[in-house]
Specification:
The structure holds two protein chains of two kinds. Chain A has helices at 24-29, 65-73, 105-115, 120-134, 149-162, 179-194, 206-212, 230-241, 418-421, and strands at residues 3-17, 36-50, 54-59, 80-86, 89-92, 167-171, 198-203, 215-220, 223-228, 260-269, 284-292, 296-306, 312-315, 324-327, 332-338, 346-356, 363-374. Chain A is α+β, with helices and mostly antiparallel strands. Chain A folds into two domains: 3-241, P-loop containing nucleotide triphosphate hydrolases (Rossmann fold, 3-Layer(aba) Sandwich); 260-374, abc- transporter (atp binding component) like domain (Coagulation Factor XIII, Chain A, domain 1, Distorted Sandwich), CATH 2.70.50.60. Chain A has a six-stranded mixed β-sheet, with helices on both faces. In chain A, strands 12, 13, 14, 16 and 17 form a five-stranded antiparallel β-sheet that branches. In chain A, strand 8 and strand 9 form a beta hairpin. Chain A is globular. By secondary structure, chain B is mainly α. Chain B has helices at 55-64, 66-80, 89-109, 117-144, 146-151, 157-185, 196-221, 225-239, 246-255, 262-266, 270-282, 304-333, 336-339, and strands spanning 46-50, 286-288, 295-297. Chain B has a two-stranded antiparallel sheet with strand order 2-3. The radius of gyration of chain B is 27 Å and the shape is globular. The chains are: A alpha+beta, B mainly alpha. Chains A and B meet through strand 1, helix 1, strand 2, helix 2 and strand 4 of A and strand 1, helix 2 and helix 5 of B. Strand 4 of chain A pairs antiparallel with strand 1 (46-50) of chain B, so a sheet runs across the interface.
């Protein structure tokens, strides 16, 4: 397996000028010097991307991922280091970037194709394909300035994919156009993968990375944090970089004079001891210490789980008799046991509360007091782990009667069986 | 960077989970330790991106993208006249009006005695227009195309060169008009001097390219280049023998006993090129005013070979300038995307 892109010790410095002196007068006044703060957009980035691989780059805004892509594309020159790219390369940084609004769609296909490095003869050969792909047969001789934004982007995408490069760089442009067109784009990306072309996708959409990439790199502040399988890379990205769910545990005690006071709350899960996160489907226990100043006959424990966007994932039924308990003077421990957590990726925060069924004054509530992290090693995306049993039943032919053949087709992607995952 | 052969990787080598190798501040991805560039394994071309700008590579890239140059030129032409009623007619109307103004000023008002002054004027203006149009347009071309420059990788010199292309097309149209004018006025060009034209044109194109490439890059960093260029070009125009004949300058220098300093005046590369066009198309270097006996020298009385020699020097100097401008452009280009 050969390397398609080899990035060696790439660093890129930007100059952040405190004040921009672009006119001669200002430059003369300031003696030709401009005060600037050096800003390293990329620092010693090393990565090798194999031929035929789909490689994702994850990171927050301003982490340097687009800068790296631009360096690979040759739009920016790195301050130091070297990038070697094997084969032809096309970059989709912005669709329709080279479009000239005054010209017709036809002229723009030639212009844009040439800008992306396609010889004229090749464009002529593929012209009809491009127009068909963009679904612009009717409007191809209209000036591009009269195009709708969707048409514009479609034409841009159609040209870019028809360049058929050995290496394709994509910067968050997969989500363009209407649903049908998106489908088409994804199909095209799949086709590219099957043809053994190398694709580098930059995104902060973890779902895109998970579903399309073989490996992913996480970047922060211009540095490489990790290069790994998408599942692990996404976990690192979500947990370490976005810092989602990092809780401020300093909050103490309940309300003064209250009967109940929830102390420390801990999360234990099936993967304890080997990893900090659990896989979808593993067990989870939330254990809360409870102090009580008086015996309470009919206490009710409640629990709520929020995701990183602070949206409620689950809250227990406040009237569930199963949550009722008797709390003696002094208190004890409340356990919430979940036999399995049917959640996919994310960092979830747990809130725990306790109250009396009859007296509303007796209660305590700890908002987002602990958290647990689910990392999905598979390719399923979304919020909830559902395990469909897929079967196939042949249509009745009417000749031989019912043939109730049931076949299982393949495994369900993302079904996490802990044993198979530990690599 | 080692490009040596390493042991071949098994085809199904799966990327091993990378260790957090904090060796030198950055992490490396180790892919089975075997994936490296192996020469000869694939015939695909390897592109190297680094901070250096090699002139030879740039020239190669320019040549490879010549299709794009044609397209960019065509685009500019199309856009230029797209929404005007007269369209391409402007490419003739504009110089015609300029010509008319100069004719009125110098022939009717200043009453000079040069025969067929319009033709003489036109010969010089042709040369100047090519240079002037391109230099003016090139200054702003990179900034105007920021959208492409920031998002697409291609040899950006092509933008500057496309302005030369546009100017060249306009030049060609004007040459056709000039030839028609020669026929109408019954003026025969001097055939022995025709040989100087290709050299002059080539030198002009190369020189214009050099200046255009240089200006387009500098303007990204120093936006008042645009305004400065306008003024300098205006001064430049009046310094070359287009609206007045070379003979007047030579005469003035001789009057001040500076006749041996004529070469200083010829140091301007545009001057010999304009002289060559005037000498060839206008077809004479001197004239006699009706009723007077004195001969007025308009142009230097060099033979074709002298012209060729001087133009050859200009051409060589222009090529050197062009290469230098490519180096400058290469240096500055690296930061275009962030400066725009």
């Amino acid at each position: 397996m050969a390397v398609a892109i080899e990035v060696s010790d790439i660093s890129k410095q930007f100059r952040l000028y405190n004040e921009r002196y672009t006119s001669l007068k200002e430059r003369v006044i300031h003696g030709g010097k401009m005060p600037f703060t050096p800003f390293w957009a990329l620092q010693d980035v090393n990565v090798e991307i194999n031929e035929g691989e789909t490689f994702g780059i994850l990171g927050r805004n301003g982490c340097g991922k687009s800068t790296l892509l631009k360096c690979i594309a040759g739009i920016l020159k790195p301050t130091s280091g070297e990038i070697r790219v094997r084969g032809s390369l096309a970059a989709m940084l912005e669709l329709g970037a080279g479009f000239q609004p005054e010209l017709s769609g036809r002229d723009n296909i030639f212009l844009n194709g040439s800008l992306l490095g396609l010889p004229r003869s090749e464009i002529e050969k593929r012209f009809d394909d491009i127009v068909a792909f963009a679904e612009l047969e009717q409007f191809i001789d209209n000036q591009v300035k009269y195009y709708s934004s969707g048409m514009y982007v479609r034409l841009g995408f159609a040209v870019a994919v028809n360049v058929e490069p050995d290496v394709l760089l994509v910067d968050e442009v997969l989500a363009v156009g209407d649903a049908a067109f998106q489908r088409k784009c994804l199909d095209h990306v799949r086709k590219f993968q099957q043809e053994g072309r190398t694709i580098v996708v930059v995104s902060h959409a973890t779902d895109t990375i998970r579903q399309n990439c073989e490996r992913a790199m996480v970047m922060n502040h211009g540095k490489v944090i990790t290069i790994d399988e998408p599942g692990e890379a996404i976990r690192v990205y979500l947990a370490d970089l976005l810092g989602v769910g990092t809780l401020d545990n300093s909050e103490t005690g309940g309300i003064e004079g209250n009967v109940f006071a929830i102390g420390t709350v801990q999360a234990e899960h099936g993967g304890m001891g080997t990893r900090s996160h659990l896989y979808p489907g593993e067990s989870l226990s939330i254990i809360a210490d409870l102090d009580s100043l008086a015996p309470v006959q009919n206490a009710i424990a409640t629990i709520a789980i929020h995701d990183e966007k602070n949206e409620l994932v689950f809250a227990s039924d406040p009237d569930d008799p199963g949550c009722q308990m008797e709390v003696p003077l002094g208190g004890g421990q409340i356990r919430f046991d979940f036999a399995e957590v049917p959640l996919l990726d994310g960092t979830y925060s747990v809130s725990v509360g306790i109250r009396s069924l009859t007296e509303t004054a007796i209660f305590d509530w700890k908002d987002q007091v602990t958290q647990f992290e689910v990392a999905n090693p598979g390719r399923a995306t979304g919020r909830v782990r559902l395990l469909p049993a897929v079967s196939f039943r042949r249509r009745s032919t009417g000749l031989t009667g019912e043939v109730p053949v049931v076949e299982r087709i393949g495994g369900i992607s993302g079904s996490p069986v802990a044993e198979t995952i530990t690599s | 960077m080692s490009v040596g052969a390493v042991e071949p990787a098994p085809a199904d080598s799966v990327p091993a989970p990378t260790g957090k190798d904090k060796g030198r501040g950055g992490q490396t991805s180790t892919i089975g330790g075997s994936a490296r560039f192996v020469p000869g394994q694939s015939n695909r071309q390897i592109t190297v991106v680094n901070g250096k700008a090699q002139v030879r590579q740039r020239l190669k890239d320019l040549w490879r993208n010549r299709d794009l140059l044609v397209l960019l030129t065509r685009t500019q032409l199309k856009v230029k006249y797209k929404n005007s009623v007269l369209g391409y007619l402007w490419s003739m109307l504009n110089p015609a009006l300029v010509l008319a103004v100069y004719y009125v000023v110098f022939k009717v008002i200043a009453r000079n005695t040069i025969p067929s002054f319009a033709i003489f004027l036109f010969c010089g203006l042709l040369v100047w227009n090519l240079f002037n149009n391109s230099a003016m347009a090139a200054t702003g071309v990179v900034v105007a195309n920021a959208g492409i420059v920031k998002k697409v990788a291609f040899p950006r010199e092509l933008l500057a060169l496309s302005t030369v292309g546009v100017a060249l097309v306009l030049f060609a149209i004007q040459v056709v008009v000039l030839i028609l004018a020669l026929v109408v006025f019954g003026i025969t060009p001097s055939v022995p001097f025709l040989i100087t034209l290709p050299i002059a044109l080539l030198a002009l194109v190369v020189f214009t390219s050099a200046i255009s490439v240089f200006l387009s890059a500098v303007n990204v960093y120093l936006r008042d280049t645009q305004h400065l260029t306008e003024v300098l070009l205006m001064a430049w125009f009046w310094s070359i023998p287009v609206v007045y004949p070379y003979g007047q300058i030579a005469g003035a220098l001789s009057d001040h006993h500076l006749g041996s300093f004529k070469w200083v005046y010829l140091m301007d590369p545009v001057t010999p090129i304009a002289l060559a066009f005037q000498r060839t198309m206008y077809g004479r270097s001197q004239y006699t005013v009706k009723g007077a006996s004195t001969v007025t020298h308009m142009l230097p009385n060099w033979g074709p070979s002298t012209y060729c020699l001087i133009l050859g020097v200009v051409l060589v100097a222009s090529i050197i300038l062009f290469l230098l401008s490519l180096i400058v452009f290469g240096r500055l280009e690296g930061n275009f995307a962030e400066e725009l």
